[in-house]
Specification:
The chain is globular and about 65 Å long. The protein contains 21 helices and no strands.
Amino acid sequence: MAINTMEAIVIFVIAYVLIISEKVQRTIVGICGAVLMILCGIISQEAAIAHIDFNTLGLLMGMMIIVNITSETGLFSFLAIWSAKKVRAKPIALLAALSFLTMVCSAFLDNVTTVLLTVPITFSITSQLKIDVKPFLISQILAANIGGAATLIGDPPNIMIGSAAGLNFMSFITNLSAVCVGIFAVTEIVLIFIYREKLHTTAILQEQVMRLDAKKQIHKPGLLRKCLFVLCITIGLFVFHNTLHLGTATAALTGAGLLLLISCRHDEGTITKVLGKIEWTAIFFFAGLFVLVGALVDTGVIAIMAAEAVKITQGNLAATAMLILWISAFASAFIDNIPFVATMIPLIKDMGIMGMTNLDPLWWSLSLGVCLGGNGTLIGASANVVVASMAAQRGRQISFIGFMKIAFPLMVLSVFISSIYVYFRYL
């Protein structure tokens, strides 16, 4: 194995050990690991920059700006009180309701945008009821990634797979939505069982919440109308971004720019405040992580692992589908799923050239594996990192190991359910 390849593996492993141990803040690890890859000559600066997914970063920044301005209107407090009153302020019902909302929104927006909208609601209502916010945040992370797996536009890997395999929006709905709803239901039941002792509040606090007037939380109705107008435009751009030949970052930044223009175009103080609330720690962590994984791509590590794994099945369709599903899930729990999908797509296409006539089970296995695998660890998906960063800013740390203890077994369970589904439906 080439020296550069070994060096890339060593740096990558050390970076992940530091992230998992939490001895060093993960953003620092990401930046230092990325710089070390360049200093050691494993990857050039130009190649490193090329591996940074600016579409993801632009999407994050655009939606953070929109959400930060919208939060000034009181909308999130309104939604928090409205949703709590709908379920009589019962914590268990509220956990399920907010998670279901997250799953549905993630299917038709992207999962990062969804958690940016729902996390402020969650913090608001759990503080009202004086209950631990962590079960709600963990549940919403898992729901966001499950919902993202259900549609073509819910998660970036699905967009890549749909484009490569010629699968349209309705193909994903028809083939993946049912199993995702089933996985969500099982996941929520398990989470409610795990956290049942923490999901309690007092009758007095419930009654106080029920007496609250949700409409009184809206204190800037003029700004709210502008925000809702821009949100509708942005969501429309998300839904039709393929037709319009726009990246999701362009859609998000269009909305952000428009909202800044119509809400605070002369107010430099407000603009500085809004931009200062962007989760810069998450942005820089992603940038570093893209470079770390990009170095593994350039040195051939990911391609070697994927190719060797596929060889094991010796062309058997059922075995290949199961292997792709499980390998994708475990890989996506620890590395960014976008470069992994980019590596797997040509491999699956090659199988078709070599004589495998029915590739559909492989495409659906890849989609379920990479999307659901993101639930395995705190760095497995963009939504996970963003929620952890937002929680940290509010003084609530979600530890890597603490999250993994809950989420990784649930991820394995969801992939097991997917295995049964893929086998009986397609094989």
